[in-house]
Every structure is written in C-alpha cells, then in structure tokens.
Amino acid sequence: MESDIGRIHLKYSGCFQDAHDESLPLVMFANGIKYTPTVKHIGQYAICNDKDFVMLRHRVCPRIKDDIPLPLDLDQDFDESRYNPRIRKHDTIYFDFILQWIKEYNTKPDGIIIDNKFDPQDFHIIAKKGALKSLGNTLTDFYCNDWILLACKYEGAIYLTDLKMEDESYEGFHLRASQWGSIFEKKTTELSESDLEQLVEGATDGSFYDFSSFALGNDFKVLVRGELDAKNDDGELYELKTSAIPRSDPVGVSKYKRGKLAPAWLQATLSGCKWLKFGYRDGNGVIHDIKDLKVSQDGREWAFYDKRREIFCNGKVVLGFIRNVLQKIRDELQDGEMYRIVYKAKEIDQNRSSKGKYPRTSKPKEYKQYLKFAKVPGDFLPDWYKTFIEGLRKPTSQQ
Fold first, then answer.
1. 170-188 exposure pattern, b = at least 16 Cβ within 10 A, e = fewer
2. Residue 240, Cα to own-chain centre: how many angstroms?
3. pTM above 0.90, yes or no
4. Spatial separation of the C-alpha atoms in residues 267 and 299, rounded to whole Å
5. Strand-strand pairing, 338-347 and 304-306
6. How many C-beta neighbours within 10 Å does residue 293 have?
7. Which of 118, 100, 110 is nearest to 55 (CA)?
8. CA–CA dist 399, 392 (Å, integer)
9. Which of 37, 122, 302, 341 is the most exposed place for a label (fewest CB within 10 A)?
10. Does residue 166 register a pLDDT over 70?
11. Where are the beta strands (DSSP E) in the chain?
12. Of residues 215, 243, 211, 235, the one with CA closest to residue 42
C-alpha cells in the first residue's frame, strides 16, 4: 500500500517562492493555551525489523531495566547499514501504517466494519507526532532548522505529515549520534513476559507506536501517533533521550534547554509521559550519567525569553502555537484540498551565505522568520483508505 507522498515531496518541497505562497510571521501564532492537554490512549501497533505491520489489541510497552551499568558504551552497537536514506528522505510508508491501523481498528477479521468503534471524523487533526514536534520546535529550536509539512482534508478530518528537506542527510558523527538514541533505548529497557506472550515472532525487536487523543483548548481534538519508549513498574510512561554532557556557560545552557529539554518535553507531553530519562554521553557515545526528570505542566524547566522575537516561550506557548497553526489549516482547507506548510529561516545579512543549512558551530546573527502556506492540488491518501472511509459511513446492513 504505497501513497503518493514521495512524489509530492519531489515536486513541491523546494518551491519556496511560488506566487501562491502566503507568508505569515511566527509571532502571530505564538499565543499560549490555558491548560496542558490530558492524553488518552486509544490503540497501538508494532513494526517489526522487516517493516511488517503488527496490530496490537493490548498495550505493549518496554519497561525500564532495574540496573543499568555505567559507563554505557553505545557506539559499540553502531551499525552503518541500518541507515536507509530513501525511507528517511521520503518518509512515505510510515503514514500509510497510520491509515492501516485506523482501518484494522474498525474492522473485524471477516472484514465487517465495527459499529461505534472509531471514526476519523471525530477528530479535527490526525497527525504523526513528528509533524507536531517539528511545528512546536519552531519557537524553541536553537538552530532554526527548516521543515516542511503536508496537510490534506478528507471527510472533515485534517491529515498531517512531515517531510524531510531535500538537503537533509546523515553522515559522519551525526549519523552515529542519530543511532545512539535508539541504542540507548534498547540497552535500558526490556519487555515483560506478559508483553512477550501477545507478540508474534519478529515483533519483539521492533518499535511500538501508540495512538493517543487529546484536546488543544476546549474543542480542538487531535489524534496523534508516536513511538512509545518505556514505562516504569508503576505504569508511568517515559520518554528516553540522549544528550551530550551540557556545558555550564550561558550558550551551552541555552543549547541544552532549547535543543534537548524543550523538544523532549513536547514529545513527552504529546504522548502523556510523566518522566524523561536522559543519558548524558561524551563525544564517543559513552553514557556517563543517567537522570530521571519529571515532566512539568508548563515546561518551566526550559522556559526562556527570546529577545529576537520578543516572546516569553514556555510549554503552553508552544502548545498554543501548534493549535493556532492547525486552526488556520482547519479553517481554510476544504475537502479535497492540501496545504504545504514551510518553515524557512533566512538571514537578513546579505553578506552571509543563505544556501543550505547553517553550520552547527555557528549562530546566525539575525533571521527573518515566517511560515509559508500554499495550497497544492491533490492529497496523499491512498484509494484503499478512501474506500474504507466510504464503507464506514454506510450502515452495517449495507456492507
């Protein structure tokens, strides 16, 4: 079941200057919400190492190991062959898995649709957690990394996915560091016997994806799919992260708060996690310290004042930013239409190069920051999913 996301990506991702773009400053969306959302678990699936989809009827989540020896060498398990640039670049197959879960959750083994089970129309937004993370991190990202989102509307619901930038790639140290995080998760967690009993062969080494629902504000309902990292013996969920050992100077503290704590807080909040578990590593991928950090309601542990934008940024502002951008998409898209939303950070100083990404070792002096919205033809939903949605609207007797 392959969708058209890859082809859409190749056609549109580099078009930042077409005549139909609407440029809007970030600050117009930066209004906070009053309450942090309460997250409700709905369902789950697993992806085996060979990319097979496995529907899970009961929640499976690795547990934190009791004893984690330090120092912990992550680089010894690094495997360069695991990197798949095609999957990373187009990110096509993983959104299809979201649609496949929605279909299977609503369908009996004999193909009959289950009444009163789950209707995508009950939600305003159906999204990958990575897409909401990219959106929310726009206000906090120390390096102002570019991103592209695609949103299409079908039968009243907005489907939202993220795409990788044309020039985004992993190599050298960044390729190694990108794997250290997943290696840290595997070395610090394990599956319980009860979880192993319900898993098919091959799924035990895969990833577990959770579907959760929450409301941003009073009436803005979101369904989000994100990877589930771990839980403790009390059932409290954890988001697991690695970080370079933070420097103590002001720039180092800012990088750690904005580059690590803020995005980890957002991921944890969108998944209903109560805790962050950080492994602090050196430049060779060796963990020397592990800390559990309580997830606050408002992100006070990383909050900061952005002088450049004149915004005090905390968790509620980030969540409000997400909601306000999604509200614009919801208000303006009609069924059968699609938005391309682009975040592009441009330097005002014309004497400096503005091509590609800025080196991670440098900090641009000043940015003109904005979001660009453009309606593009078509959608990225496959025909088999649309057929299923049509069947969902029919009475059981007509199926």
1. eeeeeebbebbbbbbbebb
2. 14
3. no
4. 12
5. unpaired
6. 16
7. 100
8. 9
9. 122
10. no
11. 22-25, 40-47, 53-56, 63-64, 72-73, 125-128, 147-154, 157-163, 189-190, 207-215, 221-227, 230-231, 237-244, 275-281, 286-294, 304-306, 311-313, 338-347, 367-376
12. 211
Residue from 133, 363, 173, 349 nearest 255 by CA: 363
380 neighbors 153 (Cβ within 8 angstroms): no
Tracing tokens 């609503």 back to the chain, one arrives at 106
Query: How far apart, in whole angstroms, are the C-alpha atoms of residue 139 and residue 232?
Result: 31
Both tokens of residue 35? 């309450």
Q: How far apart are CA 131 and CA 218, in angstroms?
A: 22
Of the CA atoms within 13 Å of residue 321, those in its CB half-sphere come to 26
Instruction: Please check whether residue 370 is in contact with residue 97, taking contact to mean a CB–CB distance below 8 angstroms.
Output: no
Contact (Cβ atoms closer than 8 angstroms) between residue 328 and residue 320: no
Using one digit for the tens of pLDDT, what is the confidence trace for 252-304? 999 999 999 999 999 999 999 999 999 999 999 999 999 999 999 999 999 99
Q: Is the pLDDT of residue 331 over 60?
A: yes
User: What's at 226, amino acid-wise?
Assistant: G
Residue with tokens 């059932």: 235
Could you count the other beta carbons within 10 Å of the beta carbon of residue 348?
A: 11
Phi-psi region of 326 (alpha: psi -120 to 50; beta: other; left: phi over 0): alpha
